[in-house]
């Protein structure tokens, strides 16, 4: 349960133990959050602690915050990274699919023709034509460069895959089959460590300090619960969405109030609250994505890669009901229309072998049915055996005979032929906030008149405008890297007087 009493996808305890187990605890990576030069008694004697002066303060150590931090340090800025949780990484740690990018060297090596136009139009269409084309194009144009930038630091996303709404193979993953988020967070944490970044965990930014209409710093709560102020010339807000904030979900989408969420408990919308308090505008704030394949008893996400690699969805009658590769919102709607408002994701050992997280997240926790044949799998699932076997057999036969899929599926038509076979009960869960702070392509935060608020920049899930009414799988990881860097470039230009 989170502080609002809602069930969250990953309990606080699991979230922490998971990352300490990965060696991403604060001390292990130089994120020296709990270290304080003053004693508690000294602090308590003061009303507000002076936390020092920086060129740039970055709030939030997810993918966007880390990309901004690393980039800004490399441009010579004095940077402070603040994180309210005890560990780094945010929801980025849980990203599994990969990073969408077009015209990359990995696509070229694989003979895949892609373009900024095609990726932009897929993103716009996938977002129900609600997205801001200027922001979309900017992300797509920067995507190949971001792949190269990550690779230059040893974070290599070279394995191409299929994801919902993408016209060509453009989702880039680690070669090992490791989940992309953990891989990037591990790599970027190491980059922060190598640069000796001063980062502070357990420190929650509460308020932006303004002087003469410009950002001048932040007020935060330190690990001892005391107020602390950090002065800065520029602030980069990278605090993620509000997918674990029951009140905000209820305010914007009442029907999602009691849905499970895949978000970590720190995903509370703080950046939206403290930025709007200084005049920031928001866009598409009620656009909240539900993901169709969430295991409901633990709110654990089954990655879209699993469908992209070949999984099918069947209902409790043992039959398919949708093209599994439609966009997330449409697959979720199709599931909600089934008996029990959910489905089973069914796949074979080949899909399992391609995705390391299945073993860790589902098999080892006994959450998934596993059987050597379809009859036994149907029995474990509790679905009509004859109907289920007929469903999988005809799916496989159609592929073998080149017959069009009756559900209209045209991609990843990989027959389920390698035992054992797997079936995971899934249903939709809250996953991503498409809306957020209004920004321009330079990552400047805008007010209601469309004017940039001097010194205020934002990147990642806290911003709105790119994904419109539906985010395509792989575009969040693209966004955090392209726009995390963009935010720091604009912030550095502002700080160093080039702008
Ligand atoms: P993105 O994908 O946009 O990078 P993430 O969810 O991965 O977003 O990361 C956002 C990070 O910001 C999380 O680690 C979260 O705990 C942190 N965060 C959120 N609000 C605050 C706050 N008020 N002060 C400091 N850190 C915050």
Please identify which CATH superfamily of the largest domain we are dealing with. FAD/NAD(P)-binding domain
The proportion of residues forming helix, as a percent range, comes to 25-40%
- Overall mean pLDDT: 90
How many structural domains does the protein architecture include?
2
Round the Cα radius of gyration to an integer and report it. Answer: 23 Å
Hey, roughly how much beta strand do the residues contain? Answer: 15-25%
Low-confidence stretches: 1-39
Strand elements, count: 20
CATH architecture call of the largest domain: 3-Layer(bba) Sandwich
The hetero molecules present are: adenosine-5'-diphosphate
Q: Class by helix and strand content? A: alpha+beta
* Rough outline: elongated
Sheet having the most strands: 8 strands, mixed
The level 1 CATH classification of the largest domain is: Alpha Beta
Do you know the CATH topology of the largest domain? Answer: FAD/NAD(P)-binding domain
Distance between the termini: 46 Å
Number of helices: 17
Topology diagram in text:
Elements: H1 12-21, H2 26-29, H3 40-45, E1 49-59, H4 63-74, E2 79-82, E3 99-100, H5 105-109, H6 116-126, H7 133-152, E4 159-161, E5 171-173, H8 180-194, E6 198-200, E7 204-211, E8 214-221, E9 227-237, H9 246-252, H10 270-276, E10 282-283, E11 288-295, E12 300-301, H11 304-308, E13 312-314, H12 328-336, E14 343-348, H13 349-354, H14 357-363, E15 369-371, H15 374-381, H16 385-401, E16 421-433, E17 436-438, E18 444-446, E19 452-458, E20 463-464, H17 475-495
Parallel strand pairs: 1-2, 1-9, 2-6, 9-19, 17-20
Antiparallel strand pairs: 3-5, 4-5, 7-8, 8-9, 10-17, 11-12, 11-16, 13-14, 14-16, 15-16, 18-19
Helix pairs in contact: 4-8, 4-17, 6-7, 7-17, 15-16
Bound molecules: adenosine-5'-diphosphate (ADP).
Residues 59-65, 82-85, 90-92, 204-205, 238-240, 266-267, 270-271, 460-462, 480 line the site of adenosine-5'-diphosphate.
């Amino acid at each position: 349960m989170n502080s609002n009493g809602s069930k969250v996808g990953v309990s606080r305890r699991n979230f922490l133990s998971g990352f300490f187990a990965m060696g991403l605890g604060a001390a292990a990576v130089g994120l020296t959050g709990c270290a304080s030069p003053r004693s508690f008694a000294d602090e308590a004697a003061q009303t507000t602690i002076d936390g020092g002066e920086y060129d740039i303060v970055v709030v939030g150590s997810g993918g966007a915050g880390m990309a901004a931090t690393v980039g800004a340090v490399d441009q010579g800025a004095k940077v402070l990274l603040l994180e309210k949780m005890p560990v780094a990484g945010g929801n980025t740690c849980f990203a599994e699919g990969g990073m969408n990018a077009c015209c990359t060297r990995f696509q070229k090596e694989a003979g895949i023709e892609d373009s900024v136009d095609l990726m932009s139009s897929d993103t716009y269409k996938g977002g129900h034509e609600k997205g801001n084309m200027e922001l979309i194009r900017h992300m797509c144009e920067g995507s190949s460069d971001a792949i190269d930038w990550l690779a230059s630091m040893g974070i290599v996303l070279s394995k191409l895959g299929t994801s919902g709404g993408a016209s060509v193979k453009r989702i880039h993953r680690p070669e090992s089959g490791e989940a992309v988020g953990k891989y990037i967070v591990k790599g970027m944490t190491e980059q922060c460590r190598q640069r000796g970044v001063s980062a502070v965990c357990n420190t929650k930014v509460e308020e932006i300090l303004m002087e003469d209409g410009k950002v001048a710093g932040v007020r935060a709560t330190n690990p001892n619960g005391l107020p602390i102020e950090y002065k800065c010339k520029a602030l980069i807000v990278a605090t993620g969405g509000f997918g674990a904030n029951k009140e905000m979900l209820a305010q914007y989408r009442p029907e999602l109030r009691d849905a499970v969420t895949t978000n970590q408990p720190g995903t509370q919308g703080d950046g939206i609250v403290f930025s709007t308090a200084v005049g920031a505008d928001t866009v598409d704030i009620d656009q909240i994505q539900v993901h169709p394949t969430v295991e409901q008893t633990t709110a654990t996400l089954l990655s879209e890669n699993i469908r992209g690699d070949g999984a099918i969805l069947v209902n409790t009658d043992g039959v398919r009901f949708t093209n599994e590769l439609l966009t997330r919102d449409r697959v979720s709607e199709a599931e909600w229309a089934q008996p029990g408002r959910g489905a089973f994701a069914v796949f074979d050992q080949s899909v399992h072998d391609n995705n390391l997280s299945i073993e860790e997240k589902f098999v080892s926790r006994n959450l998934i049915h596993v059987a050597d044949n379809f009859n036994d799998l149907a029995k474990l699932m509790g679905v009509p055996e004859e109907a289920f076997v007929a469903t999988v057999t005809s799916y496989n036969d159609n592929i073998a005979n080149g017959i069009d899929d009756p559900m209209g599926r045209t991609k990843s038509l990989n027959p389920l032929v390698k035992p054992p076979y797997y079936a995971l009960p899934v249903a939709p869960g809250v996953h991503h906030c498409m809306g957020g702070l209004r920004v321009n392509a330079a990552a400047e935060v805008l007010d209601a008149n469309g004017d940039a608020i001097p010194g205020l920049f934002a990147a990642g899930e806290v911003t709105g405008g790119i994904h419109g009414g539906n985010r395509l799988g792989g575009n969040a990881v693209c966004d955090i890297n392209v726009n995390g860097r963009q935010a720091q470039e604009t912030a550095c230009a502002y700080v160093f007087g080039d702008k």
